[in-house]
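Fig. S4 source data, part A: sequence.
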Amino acid sequence: MLLILGRRLLGALPVLIALVLVVFVLQQVAPVDPVVALVGEKAPPEVYEAARRQLGLDKPVPVQFFNYLGSAVQGDLGTSSVTRTLVASDIVKFLPVTLELVFMALVLIAVIGFFLGLATAQRWRGSGVLRVVMISGASVPVFLACLIAMLVFYRWLDVLPVTGQTSAYDAPSGPTGFLLVDSLVAGRPGLFLDDLKHLILPALCIAIGPAVAVGRVLRSSLEGTLRAEYARTARAKGLSGTQVLIKHALRNALGPVLALIGLQLAGMIGNSILVEAIFARPGIGLYISQSIGKGDFNTIAGITLVVGLLYVMANIVVDVLQAAADPRIAV
């Protein structure tokens, strides 16, 4: 297991360096002048040149790249022209909100996807209806799912909130930055439930598409494993269908499911940006939408690097989980 983890980490280094290179090139060709964004369009020429030297933009392009790479490795992503604070500090502030949303979406994907996969593979009563639901759910765009969820659960039923992270005005901001955790640390279960209520709808909108995909892949994988020779042998020994499913088939069917979740992570992170903007959650999505409107390239580049790093690390975790589920995977 440690060997797999080490190899995946080594393999991630070229990917991350390539990502930094792509972001740097985009910064060079972008029509936005970072110096103007920092000092303003009406700044005197001497102020402009001083800021240009301070940012290192007067040096050759290869030197600028290695300086940018070194700063990124140290966590220095520049200064936001919107908030006038370090981009890394802003990301530390807003990222936990997004990670909390993505984590809740992963929980819903696991619950809904495994239920759909098991129900349709075992042909439970009503599985035909579930197949229709799976096909319909896979075709619903995220923004439409958000609008439908708002209409049903807020406008008609009035059971779930649709804006913000919490209704509390005195929510704790530490020690972890994750409100679900901080509310429990502060001994405020009411705040925990309130945050959970605010998470359900946006997380569900992100999870619908991936959950349906997981359900379909799990169903196909289970149908194949249940027809395998070892499953027939287990049934011949007297094991019930449930015992064969849990003890033998399910673990062997997890490989394709985990691989699919790894592929879905990029889309989930991207969709979380859109969903946060729709539900007005104070996370990375809302932060970057404001930065794009103001042409804050340092923030856009910093968030791109952080999201890319999260995606690479999440796929490393998926690879390790695949190896744990199926030791036959070659390392």
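Fig. S4 source data, part B ends here. Residues 38 and 84 are 8 Å apart (CA to CA).
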